[in-house]
Write a structure and sequence with these properties.
The complex is a heterodimer. Chain A is α+β, with helices and mostly antiparallel strands. Helix content of chain A is 49%, strand content 13%. In chain A, α3 runs antiparallel to α4. Chain A is elongated. The two termini of chain A are 12 Å apart. In chain B, α2 crosses α8. The relative contact order of chain B is 0.17. Classes of the chains: A alpha+beta, B mainly alpha.
């Protein structure tokens, strides 16, 4: 089952302080394991050196799949499987297929991206994810370090980093 | 993020250099030569070619001026902040409106004096039930389609637009001088904007019906105003991006960053799709309903102008959709410039195919028109109804005209075309060099007006309440910076 990790984390009151703290940590070469914020913080990705999400590439693939499904199935149904003349239009009436093709493109892209996102994040029905601190979903900004098996020197070093960079609280938790 | 703003030169002013002036003057001269060439040496139907080119470019650029103010008003009303660093560009772009009014005034004068036959509804005696030239469909629309209303709407509505533009500009300039924490000017700007948005929204629809849709006087579409306004909107955004990139290349606007261009790129992408949505809605409603008097509009264009018809979709939908879909393409100046040029030309073509086919058909109506009286200064075509050589008749059959002997002329569409077999005709089914020259001429004038206005004030409004927000604009794109932008 899931491995338990010892996590040391500091809570900050403001996103600007958080960003400065991250820059500070980068300068010191500290290995931040995760940053939690109650809302998207501009510039955070760059600070953490995160690469661009590839979720939208998946979205594009799902969208194309939706396009082909809708257009292909309608073409097959109306020209091969059950040809019916609607309003004097030819069997293959591409303009009439467009709205549904559009809808299915959007639907496939949305649903596919949601499922992919949930899978990547390890979320889903019946799964409980441990939360470091409830307030990081409300008004606190959090930097977390994985201190599993770390020496007390390292831990003390991290603690002093938190103090220097203006953290409001420093806690540790096993999750 | 906050450490790079201290050294920007907020007092920066644009200097309209002599080189730029002469380049733009050159373009304008080219435009004038092309218009003159068209009028005197433009081949068959040269007067028609002249007037349609004139109308086409006037409507296109007037619309861009209108939309510039519309965007500005929308931004002010929506408490938008990020546009502040480039809002002077929109203000400057809107100043073209006065030229637009003059040009549309010339079209109006031409309609009243019978200089051109762009508008079927303006033919003499056409709404007189006692005349043998009576056209019942047009008579049914005479409350809207008449010279008086055309004139009142063009000058009245357009004049009010221009007033709003002038008022807005004055407030913005006065804010530069005396703006303070009471935000007096900004509050007043919001009032102007709150009036301009609904007023402009409704009146622009009426004007686009009068200016462009009424060329096909028997035809109408409720989607038309949306569709052509969306065309203006995309063109405006494209010109805006091009101007910003040009000004950056001249060393101005160092603080208009990739972040701003990224968002403008999203506009270009989004509004291109929006345009397609409206284009397709109009097309599909008409295609599905399959009423002859409606389908004639698309039937003619698809049969006689296939290149225009499909190029329109490729340039204005498929290319921007595919090129701008990725995030990073909206941050590369080269790619953005390419797409902007494509869609700008694409939407110019869009207006070309809105105007030319209908006007050509109207010209044919005119040549066969028996009530023309003194206006008929060119009667040579009257005897040529069954001379199938001209590609003019753009497939417009008119059920209401059966009594006037147009049957044969329409039949020619099905027979292909007598000489040459080609359906292409420079200046009518596709734009020729004269059309392109005219376009460049108008573009030159447009930029001349814009640069003149831009040089009159600081490039960035120093006292705008949102200036700080705009300087810190950030779209949260995680892909890193590609053009050496030094934000972080």
């Amino acid at each position: 089952m899931s491995k338990h990790n010892e996590v040391l984390y500091g809570l900050y009151n403001d996103e600007e302080i958080l960003l400065d703290a991250i820059r500070h940590a980068n300068e010191k070469g500290l290995d931040i394991s995760e940053v939690y914020t109650p809302f998207p913080v501009h510039g955070l990705d760059d600070c953490l050196g995160l690469s661009e999400s590839r979720l939208h590439i998946a979205g594009f693939v799902y969208g194309i799949l939706g396009t082909m499904t809708a257009f292909g199935v309608m073409t097959w149904v109306f020209t091969r499987e059950w040809p019916i003349i609607f309003g004097g239009k030819p069997y293959f009436s591409a303009p009439a297929f467009i709205p549904i093709t559009f809808e299915l493109t959007v639907l496939f892209a949305c649903v596919g991206m949601v499922i992919t996102f949930y899978t990547i994040c390890g979320m889903g029905p019946g799964i409980t994810n441990p939360v470091l601190d409830d307030r990081i979903t409300d008004d606190k900004f959090c930097i977390a370090f994985n201190v599993d098996g770390a020496s007390s020197d390292t831990v003390n070093g991290l603690k002093s980093f938190f103090k220097e960079s203006g953290a409001e609280e420093i806690n540790s938790k096993t999750i | 993020m906050s450490d790079h703003n201290h050294n920007i030169n907020i007092e920066e002013r644009f200097e309209f250099t002599g080189r730029e002036k002469s380049a733009l003057m050159g373009l304008m001269a080219l435009g004038v030569i092309c218009l003159g060439w068209t009028y005197f040496l433009g081949g068959d139907d040269k007067e028609l070619r002249f007037w349609t080119n004139f109308l086409h470019n006037s409507v296109f650029f007037t619309g861009i001026a209108f939309i510039s103010m519309f965007l500005l008003a929308a931004k002010v009303l929506a408490y938008s902040g990020w546009h502040t660093v480039w809002k002077r560009l929109l203000e400057a772009k809107a100043q073209f409106m006065i030229f637009g009014l003059v040009f549309m005034g010339i079209i109006l004068l031409g309609t009243m004096m019978g200089w051109h036959h762009l508008y079927h509804w303006a033919f003499p005696e056409i709404t007189n039930p006692d005349s043998e030239c009576f056209d019942q469909i047009i008579a049914g629309k005479k409350g809207f389609l008449n010279t008086t209303f055309y004139g009142l709407a063009t000058l009245g509505f357009g004049g009010i637009w221009y007033l709003c533009i002038v008022m807005f500009r004055r407030l913005s300039l006065s804010e530069d001088k005396t703006g303070d924490d009471s935000y007096t000017q900004h509050r007043k700007m919001r009032k102007v904007a709150a009036f301009y948005m609904p007023f402009g929204g409704f009146t622009s629809a009426a004007l686009i019906w009068l200016w462009v849709m009424s060329i096909d006087a028997h035809w109408y579409s409720t989607m038309f105003a949306w569709y052509s306004t969306a065309s203006w909107l995309v063109s405006t955004v494209a010109l805006l991006i091009l101007s910003i990139i040009y000004l950056k290349s001249r060393g101005y606007f160092s603080y208009v960053s990739q972040e701003h261009l990224h968002d403008l790129g999203k506009y270009l992408f989004g509004f291109s799709v929006f345009w397609t949505y409206l284009w397709f809605s109009q097309f599909m409603l008409i295609w599905y309903a399959n009423n002859g008097e409606e389908t004639i509009y698309f039937n003619g264009r698809m049969d006689m102008y296939p290149l225009l018809f499909w190029a329109n979709l490729v340039l204005n939908f498929f290319l921007p959709l595919l090129i701008l879909m990725r995030n990073d393409t909206k941050r590369k100046f080269g790619t953005l410039t390419l797409v902007c040029c494509l869609v700008l030309f694409g939407h110019w073509l869009d207006f070309f195919q809105m105007i030319k086919p209908g006007a050509l058909h109207t010209e044919h109506e005119w040549h066969g028109y028996e009530c023309a009286g003194d206006h008929s200064h060119d009667t040579k075509h009257i005897g040529e109804k069954d001379h199938h050589g001209d590609a003019h008749d753009a497939g417009h059959g008119h059920d209401s005209h059966d009594g006037h002997g147009h049957g044969e002329a329409h039949a020619s569409v099905d027979h292909g075309h007598g000489h040459g077999g080609s359906t292409f005709k420079m200046g009518f089914t596709i734009p020729g060099f004269l059309e392109l020259g005219t376009f460049l001429g108008f573009l030159g004038l447009y930029f001349f007006v814009m640069f003149t206005s831009l040089a009159k004030a600081a490039l960035v409004p120093p006292n705008d309440p949102y200036i700080g927000e705009s300087l810190h604009h950030h779209v949260g794109y995680g892909g890193g910076n590609m053009e050496g932008d030094s934000h972080h």
